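Task: complex structure prediction.
Instruction: return structure tokens for all chains below.
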Amino acid sequence: MDNTKKRKIVRNFVIGYLMIQALAIAVYLGFGPLHPEGVTNVTNECTSPPPIFPDYKGTTIPYNIAPLNFRINVPADECYARIEGSESGILEYYGTSTIRFKRKDWVRLTRANRGKAFRVTIATKMGDEWTRWAPFSIYISDQPIDSHLVYRLIEPGYEKWHIVGIYQRNLESFDEQPIIRNDMTGYNCINCHSFCMGDPGQMLFHMRAANGGTYIVQDMKISKLSTKTDGTISNMTYPFWHPSGRYITTSVNDIKQFFHSVKEKKMEVFDLESDVVVYDVKNKEILSKASLITKEAFETFPAFSPDGKWLYFCTAPARKMPDNYDKVRYNLCRVAFDPDRGEVGLPIDTLVHADSLSYTFPRISPDGRFLMYTETAYGQFPVWHPDAEIRMMDLKDRTAVDMSVLNSPDTDSYHSWSSNSDWIVFSSRRDNGLYTLPYICHIGEDGKPSKPFLLPQEDPDKYDYQLYSYNIPELAKGKVGISPYEIQQAATKNKPEQVRFK
Amino acid sequence: MKYGRFVNNNTLILFLFIVGSFLFVELNFRYWYRFLEQYMMFQTTGSYFQDRLAEPGGLNEYVTEFFSLAFIRPYGASVVIALLLGLISGCFFLYLKACGVQASMLAAILPSFLIWIYPQESIALLVMLAFVQVLACVYTSVERDWARYLLGFLFLGASYFFAAPANLLLALWIAVYECLVKEDKTRFGVALIAIAWAGLLPLIAMRTVYILPMREAFFSKHLCHPEYPISVSLGYIALAYPLTAFGLYCVRNRVFIRRESWKRIVSCAFLLIVMVAGILYKKDPMEQAYRYDYHARRGEWQEIVSHARTHSVRDMDALIYLNLALSKTGRFTSDLMRFPQIGEGGFIPHDPKSRMGLIEASEVAWQVGQVNAAQRFAFVGVLSSQRCVQPRLMKRLVETYLVTGEYRAAEKYIKILESNPHYRDWATAQRPLLDSVACASVDWIAAKRAMLPITDNPLDLTKAFPNALAFLIDDHADNRPAFEYGMGYLLVYKDLMAFMHYMERMKERGEAFPVLYQEAICLFFSAVQKDPEAFRSFPVSPEVRNRFLRFMKVARSMPPAALRQQFGDTYYYYAQFIPTPKRQ
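Output:
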């Protein structure tokens, strides 16, 4: 075969390939939007709504949330959804098992029906028979949720990690971007991100192992700090910002873990020692006068009140560990904090006594009205405790709010308030008992929670195939502006600055 | 020329090379590639395809994983790799011809021999090379300069997004071609632009499309484990092709052998010698461990025992699998002393971090009934792998979650496994077990549940093996695998006092004593505690007793080789003549 013939063959092959590709695109574009005949022949009526995933039935959602795409968990060849809002037209969607809203339709629906509900009617087709299911409603709150959710994606596993990253998700769309991922910083551990009152411009997080240090982002500048001092037992661990941005309270912990051998329990994370300290961001020093350092007690998970005048924390009498790991129960307490002098003032006010249970993760609503915390049988790290539930106290009269609508039989633990105090995001293992997923819940003016819903994804199947947990979901009022490459530069090029203990 | 009527010389050489590559992989590395197949997981879901496309080199990875599905089949890896090598070499030969180098096929396959010297962990490199070679061939086949340059520009972009770092190689191929075909300033400029464009592409992509570390932006994360340094062998293999082209171009006018018949004989002979040498001397040092891992994965425990009997055991990983196979086949007590024992490291890996170590730890933990540990090691094995997938260990996760009754977690992994063509049937078969009633009625689950630990303890099976086993035995005296492993441990370390503690309990339960235990009991009452009354209370058979007495009589006088031949499989021979392993 001569070269001319060979070239001809190759050329024909390329032309043929391009034609096939063009044809495929034409077929996709031409026939894709074609709808089936519609629900013409309903033969069965079902009195209950169909099972859907995520379960959005009867939930309250913020008007600025991304489209609530869902999957119908009923065997079907085709499915149909009819969405009716009183202030908008009727929307109709078809699919095989998944209903995906068009962005334009969704925005029109949610904006027009703010403060009202819309109704979803679903029909499924099996063979030639359509089944119409009972409709369900979704209520659209006229209160928005903070636009971004920041979380760490990590395999929910034990002592080993591989790919860890802190990501920000725009709650108004499906856009997810990394703030920093550990493949850019030597596969180290990245953890404990925290924002000052949801301000994306003021952020803290830690790196451990390679490029270790505490990273504070303020005014688009990144400080890398070494926070272990002679006066503290470890690096800064679980942080919380003072509303002024001047201070950060954090625990210092000697953390250990072990694995259970019985099937009812998996693993245990506990402290051999722990204290609470306050770090002065401006002067780069840990303030001894604002710190709670004792050998007699374990103090951990501190948080400031939104007015900055109170320092909340968890504390338990010190015990020999790990022998007594299941006997340590943490009280929820607070002390007065003077931001001008950088000092705490006694006495300690105990808000929740750990008589038979343990309390952790205190978070006060930005309006100062409610204290939300997590309750578990023992210890302060309830992620692996299926009994862990979220509780709330009305600080006006120190009464408990009924949170049974929000909780599930599985672990419900970490939580973060929206800046308007109308929404919280919390982590829950209710879907499979293993992977932590972020749930959003409306909190009424009286503190009453609505039925929570799972963070919507463009593809509802995403959660089924994803092998990561959503760790420390924190709401932020906007997008974190600092780029991953800037953080990478700071991590790999800068030396950590040593903080002082004053 | 008369032979040319039947078959072209170059075709013959290419055919021989493909056959040789097939034999090389099949004879030396088939278990290695079967082992590696576990760390690939092709999924049929659309989201998986989209995820792959969303990273540089993702399509290459997708195709690699698809081809890797064949590795678990007989001859699968050998056929796929041989054909890929054949495609690469054939295309390279065409490329050389297009460059004006009148080299033989033998010269074109020389760089491919580097794959023999440096076997890769996946065929991602081969797929990428094949992709580049095909694009290079298409590129060189276009005669019109402007059309070729345009095509080259498009190919470079596409090769980056679909098969990075194929863009870098393709740029080299283009540059070499343009420089060699015709001495022309324009072509030289095109060569420089191609290289510059290929080098710039990752940087542009980093700032616009991806957020990636520099290394992954240039080389993708699929060619080798991103947490480890890039192997230099990748560079050797990638650069070998353009360098070969240059080298051959330099000697293009020299004729080494004039006669066609001699050319044929010399090239075939050379090729055969090189291939035979490769097949004979390039052995996989871990072959036995990978072989046992493959059999273990398929539940072919008897195959492991049979192979160890004929070939003995050559490394620790193989010994762990052998001891596990002895336990699975009910021969732990009868055959333990037939094989060299190295102590705890022969029963379970210590604090495993390696791929195989984590599989072994999970297998042993599963066998002795420590389901939590089996689950944990399986989990860590999955997440610490390069691609964060390990379908075999995902199967173990499903099994453990079914045993512990965590059905929703089991369902998650079932759904993931159902998206893989190879594991789909197995996963679908597990679905009915997600119902608690159906699950409880399955024999193997009921058996595992009956042995679940009752007493909680924080002991890690791989760090505190005997103590962790003691808890399991105390909870379930009828946990035969745990008991046998425990007694095996005590006997290998010659801890007869602790061993006898368990024998007393075994006696109280009225259980039959295996020969190994009887031999240890004979030794104990002969060497440690001379108490004939107590000895008689143990059911030691007359054969075992008489053989032991015979041993005692001749142990000092018989030549060592003869003694070993007669008593080498007994515990008292081990206790007397084999050094005690060091404790970890």
